[in-house]
Design brief:
Elements lengths: L4 H28 L10 H30 L2 H24 L5 H29 L4
Helix pairs in contact: 1-2, 1-3, 2-3, 2-4, 3-4
Main location: membrane
Protein name: Putative MAPEG superfamily protein related to glutathione S-transferase
GO biological process, one term: leukotriene metabolic process
């Protein structure tokens, strides 16, 4: 089976976003003079760390959901929904870097798209199993 390039492109985009927020933690450490292993001390630094940590937490569910949806539902729809997830993470990071109160829209976009991918994956798997006669 040949994999679709679209979910692959979204996967690379998601990993680039994660790489950028990782770099931003290092930059913030230098800017706010927070030396490892310290993880607190300046609220601006702590917001950068939370963006990084939350993106990692979301990525763990997002990537398998993206690929399962791609296989059992549609690679094009997986990529479109996954692209919205990437956009949501960028909006989340941008807002959270400014103020914690500004993270909501980006968080909502990425959480909603993650739920769509997860539920869609489950429905796609169930339909596949029932249509293939595996349960018979």
């Amino acid at each position: 089976m040949l994999l679709s390039p679209w979910p692959s492109l979204v996967t690379v985009a998601a990993l680039i976003v994660y790489f950028v927020v990782t770099i931003n933690v290092g930059r913030a450490r230098a800017k706010y003079k927070i030396m490892p292993p310290a993880m607190s001390g300046n609220p601006d630094f702590e917001r950068v760390v939370r963006v990084h940590q939350n993106t990692l937490e979301q990525l763990i569910a997002f990537l398998p959901a993206l690929w399962i949806f791609s296989v059992f539902v549609s690679p094009i729809w997986a990529a479109a929904i996954g692209g919205l997830w990437v956009l949501g993470r960028i909006i989340y990071a941008w807002g959270y870097y400014q103020a914690a109160e500004k993270r909501g829209i980006g968080f909502a976009i990425s959480s909603l798209t993650n739920m769509i991918l997860l539920i869609g994956s489950l429905v796609g798997i169930i339909l596949n199993v029932t249509q293939s006669g595996i349960l018979s």
